[in-house]
UniProtKB/TrEMBL annotation:
InterPro entries: Hexapep, LpxD, Trimer_LpxA-like_sf, UDP_GlcNAc_AcTrfase_non-rep. This is UDP-3-O-(3-hydroxymyristoyl)glucosamine N-acyltransferase. Coiled coil: none annotated. GO terms for biological process: lipid A biosynthetic process. The lineage of its organism: Bacteria, Pseudomonadati, Bacteroidota, Flavobacteriia, Flavobacteriales.
Length: 311
């Protein structure tokens, strides 16, 4: 998430009421979670397992719960609870707002776009030209939709991320202050859900077609001209290349990459990064030909065991 203006490290520390280390005039231009962090950003880390990754990331400032040496050219914000303070940043710079009318007066709808009855459009939503938004669709805050987009009934775009920290008293949600970008010529089926980014943008690339009842998690990036069939579930922070095909009931774990022109056959489970230009099957998903050979071997295994026992 980009800040409305550059802030200094000391200004952010004062906002969070926490200690800082480094140049007090270090410039901060945004904040992001680790998967989408850029130079100028604040990133938070609250587990020793991820300290090194955060400290070596592109982030300019690290919000951390341990006093460590300041990396060259960076700053630290020392907090007893970085998760809580990261939420403070979201509340301050992009607080959640709720509409009292079906279509916010802060939304923009392009020429030639059809919005059927019972559609809800939130604040800072931009919809391009010649789109069709069917009845029952909910387009929540900070969503941008290009031209010639079709969204079928009862789809929800821009819902909050499924991202929690477990505490003794229960689960604490990481607030979502990012957005959703749907490029031109995208078609989205009925009953789909696309989560907004936590601090960045969930992106659906130009020309991609999405079937009914598909879930796409926060900060996921889907390339151009992809096909995604019904009941696919994609977790947060996934990077999917161009012209990828995900057939029915494919599941993709968080933080993974799928290369361009990869094909995932039905009911496959993706648990690691996959190269592009190949066809995959199974759970965990592997090269389809290899997986089919394994299945064929398993089918004849009882016969082999029986023969060995007879010998």
């Amino acid at each position: 998430m980009k800040l409305p203006r550059p802030y200094t490290l000391s200004e952010i520390a004062n906002l969070l009421q926490c200690e800082y280390k480094g140049d007090k005039d270090q410039i901060v231009t945004g904040f992001n979670e680790i998967h989408r962090v850029e130079p100028g950003d604040i990133v938070f880390v609250d587990h020793p397992k991820y300290y090194d990754r955060a400290l070596r990331s592109s982030a300019t400032v690290i919000l951390i719960n341990k006093k460590v040496e300041v990396p060259k050219g960076k700053g630290l914000l020392i907090s007893d609870d970085p998760f809580r303070d990261f939420n403070k940043l979201t509340r301050f710079f992009n607080p959640t707002t709720y509409n009292s009318v079906p279509i916010s007066d802060k939304a923009s709808v392009g020429e030639g776009t059809i919005v059927e009855p019972y559609v809800t459009i939130g604040e800072r939503v931009i919809i391009g030209k010649n789109c069709i938004i069917h009845s029952g669709v909910r387009i929540l805050n900070d969503t941008t939709i290009g031209d010639n987009v079709i969204i079928q009934p009862n789809t929800v775009i821009g819902s909050h991320a499924f991202y929690y920290k477990k505490r003794p008293e229960g689960y604490d949600r990481l607030l979502s202050g990012g957005g959703v970008l749907i490029e031109d010529n995208v078609e989205i089926g009925a009953g789909c859900t696309i989560d907004r980014g936590v601090t960045a943008t969930t992106l659906i690339g130009r020309g991609t077609k999405i079937d009914n009842q598909v879930q796409i998690g926060h900060d996921t990036i889907i390339g151009k001209n992809c096909l995604i069939a019904s009941h696919v579930g994609i977790a947060g922070c996934v990077d999917i290349g161009d012209e990828v095909i995900l057939w029915g009931q494919v599941g993709v774990a968080s933080g993974l990459k799928i290369g361009s022109k990869a094909v995932l056959l039905g009911q496959s489970g993706v648990t690691k990064d996959l190269e592009g230009g190949k066809t995959y099957f199974g759970s965990p998903a592997e090269d389809a030909r290899k997986k089919y050979r394994e299945l064929a071997s398993i089918r004849v295994l009882p016969e082999i065991i029986e023969r060995l026992e007879m010998d």
